[in-house]
Amino acid sequence: MKYSHREYFFNKCSWYGILYITFLLVIIAPLGVNAQEAKTKKPLIIKEQGSFAAGGTVKTSPGTFDPIEHGAFNPADQPTEGQSLHGDHAFVFYQVPTNPRTLPLVFWHGYGQSMKTWQTTPDGREGFQSIFLRRGYPVYLIDQPRRGLAGRSTEPTTISAATDDQLWFGIFRLGIGTEFYPGVQFSKDPEALDQFFRQMTPDTGPLDIEVNFGAVSALFDKIGSGVLVTHSHSGGQGWLTALENNNIKGIVSYEPGSNFVFPEGEVPDPISYVGGQLSARGVPMSEFERLTEIPIAIYYGDYIPDEPSKYPGEEQWRAALSMAEQWRDTVNKHGGDVTLVHLPDVGIKGNTHFPMSDLNNAKIADLLSDWLEEKNLD
């Protein structure tokens, strides 16, 4: 079919118009949720950024590697003779803003999570990574060994494909079952919940606490002095890392849930809760005293019951908060400086197990900024 020049022109215009509109929908529309926010923010200028592995081991197999006999990739029957495997390291991504503050913040995720915890929030706002870069702090984000981008494990495991979203909905205290708590500081947009579920990531090897804190200690050996910021399962691992490394000058822990470290002879009785039991661990006083030498802040969110609850997702945090209070008192009794804040007690309500990415995360960040300044860690 032949077209006149006029018809050809208008057909072309229509085609390019469709392409342009498609471009806007695909590229710009996803940013629309934060379009207004973006207009009000100044450009974020990064002086330096990069990534590297920290810690880890090398596993070797006996024999001699033959590049002909053993050089073909066959995942069903891969030969190992004379070969090595580099694994069990942490993966670290870092950014340094212009005119940086002296001490960097090192962010460590919790169970089933990765560095995504500290990045863009499930509803598309800036997370602690960007918030604290804007406030002048160098930031280091960790994927602990055998998790996320540090998935190369020296030990095998089986990865489950269990349907467990609603289990974590309860344990992470967004609500009960599939219903959000009233007043919860989490977006009720279904897309936000979808994004939240998709940030879960499995262990690619057996969970080994010593491997984890060894890698994070290696990170502090590399970068020098800094402040460690932990969440949930990394909370207890953070105490253990500080026992190993004097470059940790302060610890901020959001909702630590296990591995509270007490002096031998002062370990409290386990705390039972629906679905389990929380036990502390003892270390020699000569090691424990290290935790009395640095300022520590602990924060817990909302919906943690004072009395036993029938819901396991709430119960384990009742036990954790109770153990944390005993731990604070013990560290401070021995000359330490632990501040424990239960956010509802200071008028901040509705926070989940992820206060760093809740709707009010800027207010949570303000608490951290104020504490860092108060303790001369800024």
UniProtKB/TrEMBL annotation:
State the organism named in the record: Fodinibius roseus
| Protein name per its UniProtKB record | Alpha/beta hydrolase family protein
Alphabetized, the UniProt keywords read:
Membrane, Transmembrane, Transmembrane helix
Domain of life here? Bacteria
Matching entries from Gene3D superfamilies are given as: alpha/beta hydrolase
InterPro entries the UniProt entry points to: AB_hydrolase_fold, Carboxylesterase_BioH
Query: What residue ranges are annotated as transmembrane?
Result: 15-33
The keyword Repeat appears for this protein? no
